[in-house]
Amino acid sequence: MQVVSKFQYTTLSREDGGEDGRKYVDPQGNRLPSVTTILDRTKPDEAKAALAAWRRRMGEKKAAEIVKEAAFRGTMMHKFLERTLNGEDPKPGSNFYHQHSFKMSQVILETYLKPFMDEVWGLETNLYYPELYAGTTDLTGLYQGTPSIVDFKQTNQPKTDERVEDYKLQLVAYANAHNRVYGTDIQQGVILMCSKDLAPQSWIVRGEEFKEYSDKWWQRVAEYHKV
Question: Is the pTM of this model over 0.85?
Answer without folding.
Answer: yes
